[in-house]
Design a protein that fits this description.
The structure holds 2 protein chains of 2 kinds. By secondary structure, chain A is α/β, with parallel strands linked by helices. Chain A is built from 23 helices and 13 strands. By secondary structure, chain B is an alpha+beta fold. Classes of the chains: A alpha/beta, B alpha+beta.
Chain lengths: 554, 163
């Protein structure tokens, strides 16, 4: 492909749209990790074969697409008809069903009703900004992204905006970092921009280490160019010429998708030197994690990108002043970056109308555990947990009762039913002892024991503690020992006070976010489910039947 | 280490592509494990020589990250996802059943070297929990009986090639 100039992008978009409109139907087969595990690639092939069999190649375009979020009923297929009000979603599609769908829907014009996904409630309360393109574009084609208005935001920046102007819009949008801590993004950008030192770096954090969370992975698999465009805009705003995407090695499909996207963007001169024939240059490399939860911490990720052990260091100096190789570095979660193009396109004021005044925009959540509709969702900030669990998620399956919801991954908090009306935003979650984290919501029913759950998360944090500071390394190990005592029948009533005291010490004295948040599950289960601890210690019984088991009985 | 081994040549080429930079150490370790299946002591010593880094640094980095293995894995690999969603959905029961049936512990291989059992922290297929990965193939919504049957079938002489 030849080098692009600023106004070429519009032409590509128009050409691509003409090409797409030539087809009456577009059959989008979800080829994200979840659906691929369930055989989506065979379904894709079956659709191609069926379209050929019926001689409908000129009317039907079969394409891959990213995850729409309904992962529990995969493989899912989205059929979009030109001029239709909304696309139709087919669930649990098999290669055999693919032929029936083509015959009924495309040839006879009657959607195969019995195979359609009918759960309107799952999508009703969602608001998709970050996931704007999922299910619509083929992530492996840059043209699809451009046709949806992609890369027009970086064009707008280069053609009409100063770096300060871009930062101004981001500050105006009220966007806060989606990695968990919720630091105002615009403020971070202006800190890096103001630092007089070069070169500067942009690092995109795709080290989604929280077990039970897959929102970032889905984003990277479904819309990789949105992340790249966000990085380009960030680089332009702060004056960086080099960037890294740090991805988990456990996400092979996301890595492959990003590699392809980077190669395409490079071949169209959207990455590299003289981007879009302007003096702006930016180069990008992928770096892989290797299974260390702590590597998501912002100073640890820097160490890992430099090829060292992912161990955090004290701040200040902040990465904004001294990051990669001692140079100013902007670190953002990929979800934050994917918000940037739409903020530049529509303006910060427009973006700030979504969500709550203090927490603008939306947040993606992975909704899992004991829930009827597990999957990936995106809701405006301020949506209540009850809406998420019972309306979007459809409640707890198998006639079981809801017990708790764990928000924010292994270092989040376990919240009981009476806190479900809490609006989801950074500040209200912190108030009740949970964290936003990277957006994991795991629903727990009465078959789970809260003491065992807290022990599971403590085990995780003991494993993942990097060992640099004592409160986290030694403190968590002690907490784990106390849990072992309680769940094996050797608990004492004063253990609860010891747990509480240790938790506070660990929280207050640890060096990084891992240690500071690791006691959250302990603190919240002690606060909201104290009776279960008492029962374990005094009666030596576990209502859920998880504890006090000898290995033989399992 | 065999100098004329093709894998060694490929690893050398990869290091050259990365200019033998210290910052590419993780990528190089990934490549080495991909080629050899695990990181042996000899291999790590050689990498430390090629990259001109102290062995303590290379070993320190490699052992820090749980993705790297230092013992040769068995012929068949079973990995259980121990993410939160899988745990809540009972993956621990499946793990214990595998350990009991084949008489070994997670992180180890069976005495005949046919089977290795590993755990990983979340592969991100949480909506399909619990997940068990057998020789690279993900089994979602796994059940104890289903997984055991699958493994028995594997060990019963059916090789990966003919499957």
């Amino acid at each position: 492909m030849s080098r692009l100039k600023l106004d070429d992008l519009q032409k590509i978009a128009e050409h691509e749209l003409d090409f797409q409109r030539a087809y009456k139907y577009r059959i989008n087969v979800c080829c994200s990790s979840g659906c691929v595990h369930l055989g989506a690639l065979k379904v894709l092939k079956a659709f191609e074969d069926a379209v050929k069999e019926f001689g409908a190649e000129k009317e039907c375009k079969v394409a891959k697409t990213g995850c729409v979020g309904t992962c529990s009923v995969g493989p899912v297929v989205i059929v979009d008809k030109v001029g239709a009000v909304r696309p139709r979603l087919y669930q649990n599609v098999t290669p055999e069903k693919a032929r029936t769908i083509v015959q009924d829907h495309m040839i006879l014009g009657l959607p195969a009703e019995e195979m359609l996904y009918k759960n309107e409630a799952f999508f009703k309360k969602q608001h998709r900004l970050v996931l704007r393109n999922v299910g619509k574009i083929d992530p492996s084609r840059i043209q699809d992204y451009i046709a949806m208005g992609g890369y027009s935001a970086i064009v707008k920046c280069l053609a009409t905006m100063t770096p300060q102007g871009v930062i101004y819009e981001v500050i105006n949008s009220g966007l806060r970092g989606r990695g968990g801590a919720g630091f105002p993004t615009g403020r971070k950008w202006s800190m890096v921009a103001r630092t007089h030192n070069s070169p500067k770096y942009v690092v995109a954090n795709l080290d989604e280490g929280d077990p039970g969370v897959f929102a970032n992975r889905t984003l990277a698999e479904a819309d990789p160019h949105a992340i790249l465009e966000g990085m380009l805009i960030a680089a332009y705003a702060i004056g960086a010429e080099k960037g890294y995407i740090y991805a988990r090695a456990e996400y092979p499909l996301a890595i492959e998708t990003l590699q392809k996207a980077i190669a395409q963007a490079r071949s169209m001169s959207l990455i590299g030197g003289n981007i879009l024939e302007t003096p702006f240059k930016f180069d990008l490399e992928l770096r892989f994690g290797a299974g260390a939860f702590v590597a998501g911490e912002e100073t640890a990720i820097l160490a890992s990108v430099e090829g060292r052990r992912a161990m955090p260091r004290p701040r200040p100096p902040y990465p904004a002043h001294s990051g990669l190789w001692g140079k100013p570095t902007l670190i953002q979660n990929v979800e934050t970056l994917a918000n940037i193009p739409i903020i530049v396109q529509n303006g910060g004021a427009w973006f700030s109308k979504v969500g709550t005044p203090k927490c603008t925009g939306t947040k993606c959540f992975s909704l899992t555990g004991k829930i009827n509709n597990p999957g990936l969702i995106e809701v405006p900030m301020g949506t209540t947990l009850r809406e998420v669990v019972f309306e979007i998620g459809g409640g707890v399956p198998d006639g079981r009762t809801f017990k708790a919801v764990l928000v924010g991954g292994p270092s989040g908090g376990c919240l009981p039913e009476n806190l479900l009306d809490l609006p989801i935003d950074y500040d209200s979650l912190t108030k009740v002892g949970a964290i936003m984290g990277s957006g994991g919501i795991v629903v727990i029913d009465d078959q789970s024991c809260m003491v065992d759950t807290a022990k599971f998360f403590t085990d995780f944090c003991v494993d993942e503690s990097c060992g640099k500071c004592t409160p986290c390394r030694a403190g968590l190990a002690r907490v784990k020992e106390i849990f072992e005592g309680i769940t094996e029948g050797n608990g004492k009533l004063e253990d609860m006070a010891t747990l509480e005291k240790s938790s506070v010490y660990i929280r207050d004295a640890s060096l990084c976010g891992l240690g500071q948040t690791a006691p959250n599950p302990v603190i919240t289960t002690l606060r909201y489910f104290r009776d279960e601890y008492v029962q374990h210690i005094v009666d030596k019984t576990c209502r859920a039947g998880k504890c006090f088991r000898k290995e033989k009985e399992v | 280490m065999l100098k004329d081994d093709n894998r060694r040549v490929m690893l050398e080429k990869f290091m050259k592509e990365n200019d033998f930079q210290e910052s590419a150490l993780l990528e190089i370790l990934h490549k080495a494990q991909e080629l050899y299946g695990y990181l042996s002591k000899d291999l790590l010593m050689e990498l430390s020589g090629s990259l001109n880094l102290p062995p303590s640094h290379v070993f320190g980095v490699a052992t820090f990250y749980s993705f790297f293995r230092f013992k040769a894995p068995g012929e068949h690999l079973v990995t259980a996802c121990l993410g939160t969603a899988c745990y809540v959905k009972g993956v621990e029961e499946i793990l214990l059943a595998i350990e009991r049936e084949f008489d070994f512990k997670r992180g180890e291989s069976t005495a005949d070297g046919k089977l290795s059992l590993f755990v990983t922290r979340c592969i991100g297929a949480c909506a399909m929990a619990p997940n068990i990965i057998v020789d690279g193939e993900v089994i979602g919504k796994a059940t104890k009986e289903g997984v055991l049957e699958h493994i028995r079938l594997l060990l019963g002489g059916v090789t990966t090639e003919t499957r």
